[in-house]
Amino acid sequence: MPQETPVQLLWTGGWDSTYRLLMLLLQLRLPVAPIYIYDAKRASAPVEMRTMEHLREAIATSYPHARALLQPTTVVCMEDIAPDEDIERAFNRVLQKVRIGDQYAFIARYCKQHGLDGVELSVENAPRGAHAALERNMELVASPAGPTYRMRNDAEDDIRKVFGPFSCPIFMTRKEDMSAAVTRNGWQPLMAMTWFCHKPSRKMEPCGFCNPCQYVLQQGMGHRIPRSRRTLSRLYSFTLMPLRARTRQWLRRMRAQT
């Protein structure tokens, strides 16, 4: 029997969170209550919303039992999340050591504001970003939704303030592991619908230059970038992207010191 309390999953319509969604709905057959943070300033937000709507209907069509399990998505507007100086200071100190996305700070603020704990965050096993920041601070534990990774009791204080509320079930799963599971389970049509780009073109195609697009190339999934942009995107990854990343990191550190 499914657990009565649904799994709270941070869902964006992206590859990692959709992969976890399919695991919960189709393998574990558990109810899921997705959460999505809507940032009106981000060009990809409307595309992500449409992507999740299309995925929701496609999942229900292909797997009718999932319609009842997938609850309505809680859409949270960024401006409705209360500020929290303690979390922001901790986030900025983490940034001085590891490059991570801004989203982790406002998701942590949202969880603290609403007293949430154990919300699933789809951090994959990759040698960068959140996984690099968390690697020495997590431990494998049991949960109603299966084995997952949670914060160790002796975790660094700043890491705990930013990532403490989260459960990370795919923390040790690599992209190639997910791809193999997708093929094995016949989920390719659904996963092909996922979205990743932060700055879509006017044609609503992946730009090829933002960080998620670059990660897609690095992970051997360049076929998801339009052919017309693929060559320039690869050139950008070896030239301007490293310079841009260093500049952004320097600016963040300067802000953290003021």
Polypeptide structure, described:
This is 7-cyano-7-deazaguanine synthase. InterPro entries: Rossmann-like_a/b/a_fold (IPR014729). The protein is mainly alpha-helical and 258 residues long. It folds into two domains: 7-167, Rossmann fold, CATH 3.40.50; 196-257, no CATH class. Helix content is 48%, strand content 10%. It has helices spanning 15-27, 45-62, 66-69, 85-95, 103-114, 129-134, 157-163, 175-185, 188-191, 211-218, 227-238, 240-257, and strands at residues 7-10, 32-38, 74-77, 119-120, 138-141, 148-151, 166-167. Strands 1-2-3 form a three-stranded parallel sheet. A two-stranded parallel sheet has the order 4-7. Strand 5 (138-141) and strand 6 (148-151) form a beta hairpin. Helix 4 (85-95) packs across helix 7 (157-163) and helix 4 crosses helix 12 (240-257). The chain is globular, with a radius of gyration of 18 Å.
Write a short abstract of this structure.
The protein is mostly helical and 258 residues long.
How many strands appear in the DSSP assignment?
A: 7
Rounded mean pLDDT is 88
CA(first)-CA(last) distance = 53 Å
What is the chains' assembly state?
single chain
The sequence of SSEs as H and E is: EHEHHEHHEHEEHEHHHHH
Strand order of the largest sheet: 1-2-3
Number of discrete domains: 2
Q: Output the CATH class name of the largest domain.
A: Alpha Beta
What is the second-level CATH architecture of the largest domain? 3-Layer(aba) Sandwich
Specify the number of helices. 12
At CATH level 3, the topology of the largest domain is: Rossmann fold
* Helix-and-strand structural type: mainly alpha
Helix content: 40-55%
Strand content: 5-15%
Strand count, sense and closure of the main sheet?
3 strands, parallel
Principal-axes geometry comes out as: globular
InterPro entries: Rossmann-like_a/b/a_fold
Protein name: 7-cyano-7-deazaguanine synthase
